[in-house]
Amino acid sequence: MKRVAILISGRGSNMAAILDAVRAGEIAANVIGVISNRPAAPGLALASERGVPTVAIDHMAFADRAAFERELSGAIDAFSPDLIVLAGFMRVLGADFVARYRGRMLNIHPSLLPAYPGLDTHAQALADGVKVHGCTVHFVTQDVDHGPIVAQAAVAVHDGDDEAALAARVLRAEHRILVAAVRWFCDDRLVIDGNRVRVKHELTGADTLLVPALQ
Ligand code: GAR
User: What distance, in Å, lies between the first and last C-alpha atoms of the chain?
Assistant: First the structure.
């Protein structure tokens, strides 16, 4: 069984989706720890309630990023994880840290990368008037919100959407692709080939999403 560590900064709904899937037997893994850079993150309490060991490492308590990341990697390595999942972890990570976990650190991002890296992705999508928005799971590399893409989900942008409505629709899709990506990793089905990721034994789905749907 693979050992999975999850890093969060806030609510922890993506983390909870992974815990639910593990509990339901959909992911063959043990979540061995949840780490947050924010001691008050609601997701930490949620993890504790589920019996998962938690660690809080307040980034504000460190003089610089390197010192914070030394502490963070110490806490991660103490769990000996096979996979590290950034599930709403809102700190930019330095080159040494990223290199240490290359090929075994996944991130969920609320846009169809390479569109809208960074913050406020839903507001940007609404401002641009796009009809399709979505989310991406990718391996973490030194370039923030880049790195080999494992899975993406596209969602429709509806006429009446505000940021909250669009974010909620994307979040439901995030939970689905993150659970799938973690499952594939834990089943040794992901093959990184340069900037592309192949999923072994992948099932093909619908090839085209039309928004608005054709009448
Ligand atoms: C999610 O929407 C995730 O994609 C985003 O933070 C949210 C965390 O929600 N992550 C990023 O923006 C990273 N660049 P959650 O705590 O409920 O999982």
Answer: 48
